[in-house]
Amino acid sequence: MVRRSSMIATERVKSGEWLPPWTVAEHEARYAFASRFVTGQAVVDCASGNGNGAAVFLRNDPASLIGIDVDQEAVDAANAALGTDRASFRRAEATALPAGDATADVFISLETVEHVEDDRGFLGEVARVLKPNGLFICSTPNRSVTNPGTGLADCPWNPFHVREYTAREYLDLLTERFEVVGWYGQNRTAGAKVRWLEWIARNLGRKVAVRINQAWKCRWFLVAGGAVHAVTESAPDLHDEYMVAVCRPKVMGADR
């Protein structure tokens, strides 16, 4: 059986392959957001794929960049396109990172944790690799929007995802090991719409609610540019389809 953590390779932005324009714009907006933090830093890019995000990060002049991915073909493509003395790409699992303790200033992991069976094991590895004052920049879908009416143990509609989190669940998971110093999101959705989708899921079925949310996104065929999908600070009574957190490692054992 193929593990879902290894199937992320089939769900990423690849050169020459068609994806809905909003999906590409969403990825690019996350790359742009994370790139703000990399200048002069030792960076780890986990789930780096073919290097599309790394190419954005490298334009902001990090001191070094290590890309990590489970797909050897993607790793080879990234090394061929971007590999230098400053940037290299390696094949590894997210729960067994090929990096030393406290070696990264910035650890970037966009749309990764929902693919990993052992989410806490992954975050433990991130904490191990980060320097004490390092930054962890991570994103994941918000189940309240993408899978309304479901629980954490329910299988998401996306077959490549092990699980999806609500904002509260994701925050609780992160704060086991990290201090969240910034909370952001993409594709802001009104609370009333989320409650309506949850009602549909309960009364007409979860699949119907998911398909309505997907169909609603088709309006973005008519909207040019990625500004619609920019990563912005979260706001009360609004739900982000994608949650983006900026974190620092906790000092384990310190008073909370």
The description of the largest β-sheet is: 8 strands, mixed
Number of domains: 1
CATH fold annotation: Rossmann fold
What order do the SSEs take from the amino end to the carboxyl end, as H and E? Answer: HEHEHEEHEHHEHHEE
Catalogue the unreliable spans. Answer: 1-10
Strand adjacency order, main sheet:
3-2-1-4-5-8-6-7
Radius of gyration: 18 Å
Per CATH, the class reads Alpha Beta
**The CATH architecture:** 3-Layer(aba) Sandwich
Mean pLDDT: 89
If you had to describe this structure to a student in words, what would you say it looks like?
The protein has 256 residues and is an alpha/beta fold. The protein has a single domain, classed as Vaccinia Virus protein VP39 (Rossmann fold). It has eight helices and eight strands, in the order H-E-H-E-H-E-E-H-E-H-H-E-H-H-E-E. It has helices at 21-35, 52-58, 72-82, 119-129, 143-146, 167-174, 191-204, 206-217; strands spanning 42-46, 64-69, 87-91, 104-110, 130-141, 178-190, 232-233, 238-249. Strands 3-2-1-4-5-8-6-7 form an eight-stranded mixed β-sheet, with helices on both faces. Helix 1 (21-35) packs parallel to helix 2 (52-58) and helix 7 (191-204) packs across helix 8 (206-217). The longest helix is centred in the N-terminal third of the chain and has 15 residues, at 21-35. The radius of gyration is 18 Å and the shape is globular. The termini are far apart. Mean pLDDT is 89; it is low at 1-10.
